[in-house]
Write a structure and sequence with these properties.
- It holds the Pfam family YaeQ.
- This is YaeQ family protein.
- The protein is an alpha/beta fold.
- 22% of the residues lie in helices and 41% in strands.
- It contains four helices and eleven strands; from the N terminus they run E-E-H-E-E-E-H-E-H-E-H-E-E-E-E.
- The strands form two sheets. It has a six-stranded mixed beta sheet with strand order 3-4-5-6-7-11. A five-stranded mixed beta sheet has the order 2-1-8-9-10, with helices on one face.
- Helix 1 crosses helix 4 (135-142).
């Protein structure tokens, strides 16, 4: 018998001073049985960082044809494809062919090893950006995970703060590869 996803709810208040975006979002997040709280919270972080009118969670782990987060335009064309973790180069190159922009947010302590292996393989992908969230920061973010969450996200000068109650986590993503 297959295990079912666990449903999380988040009221997310976003104040992105870098883009002039201020809004509240009610998110329903399906956490796959094999997904950790840390990975799920990185998906929430990706949503907060790249929020737009049409941004939504994809099936991610449970479907190889969809990313973790994506944005499609009104014609169905994929504008942004977001992968969380350490996807393989074939998946990323395929995504680069299907989407205007592809973003990877890696977060584990092994991200440096993964990136050393992937860097040369992904050099030709001009519409690919790779960010790394330091392990200590992603682990602190994981501690904010609850079945029902009230989160505030503030983005200013490239720094991100995510708070739940009186606990605040600062995220300083490191750019490993930028769009070229």
């Amino acid at each position: 018998m297959a295990l079912k996803s666990i449903i999380y709810k988040a009221d997310l208040n976003i104040s992105d001073m870098d883009r002039g975006y201020y809004a509240d979002h009610q998110l329903t997040i399906a956490r796959h049985p094999s997904e950790t709280d840390e990975r799920m919270m990185i998906r929430v972080l990706a949503f907060a960082m790249y929020v737009s009118e049409r941004l939504e969670f994809g099936k991610g782990i449970s479907d190889t044809e969809e990313p973790d987060v994506w944005e499609k335009d009104y014609t169905g064309a994929i504008r942004l494809w977001v992968e969380v973790g350490q996807p393989d180069d074939r998946r990323l190159l395929k995504a680069c062919g299907r989407s205007e922009q592809v973003l990877v947010i890696c977060y584990a302590s092994a991200s440096d090893v993964w990136w050393k292996q992937m860097n040369s393989r992904l050099d030709r992908a001009k519409n690919l950006k790779v960010l790394n969230v330091p392990a200590a920061q992603s682990q602190a973010l994981e501690k904010l995970a609850q079945r029902t969450m009230q989160l505030q996200c503030t983005i200013q000068d490239g720094q991100i703060w995510i708070s739940a109650g009186d606990v605040s986590v600062q995220i300083d993503p490191e750019t490993l590869k930028d769009f070229s």
